[in-house]
């Protein structure tokens, strides 16, 4: 889970519709969860049932980006009209009764980019009287502990570790010998991606075979993951591999040549060799062949 810290700063305001000075507040939640920005105001002493209350929430500056606009028309306590004309991303909601002097705003689905200051403006129109109030400096600070999003081997054997966090995560590496590697060198570059609140650390060409550990850390927390790297193949290893391959190939070629030579000699011997018994039989057959031939009449 992500930890989210929201800080609300309150200041006093001399206008009639305002609240007393309040101390710093911190609210802890989770990324993707909800948080409420407090804003209360003192209703005018002449405030009665018939009035119109408009609540504006702006971000960044007192007259900055408008993220929420709400109007409540009070005809009487049992008959009121309300309208919501601006709600950026449909993520904002009033959580209490504006008619009772509370314009606190809930932010739903917290994101890291919600960090900033928010200003609450309250305008009350009662008959011919208008009362304006501004609650200045409601600040939202969203912080999340460092968490590793991915750790992987990429093409070429490099190791890449991507972490998210606010404040930005610091990445360190521990090699298979349990040594901490120097950071942000040509061998271990580090890149920050501010718009995504991410930090990317690399090990280019790991020099050892074994388990490397990526450690991501900020003031809110720490995360670590391990990955097994095959390590580089040394030049000596390549040389031995090449020599062994050549020797094996030579032995194989020599064996083939010897086998073919022996096979050729064997065939030649079979063709030229005639057993002595066969020679004697041939001679006997030749010498006695005339006695067996039929005689022709004269």
TrEMBL record:
Kindly give the Gene3D superfamilies that the UniProt entry links to this protein: Immunoglobulins
* Keywords, ordered alphabetically: Membrane, Transmembrane, Transmembrane helix
> Where is it found, in Gene Ontology cellular component terms?
plasma membrane
Which residue intervals define the domain Ig-like in the entry? 14-122, 145-229
Query: Does the keyword section mention Transmembrane?
Result: yes
Decide whether keyword 4Fe-4S is in the record: no
Where are the membrane-spanning stretches? 240-261
UniProt-listed CDD domains = Ig
GO biological-process terms attached to the record: regulation of actin cytoskeleton organization; regulation of bone resorption; regulation of osteoclast development
Name of this chain's protein: Ig-like domain-containing protein
- UniProt organism field: Callorhinchus milii
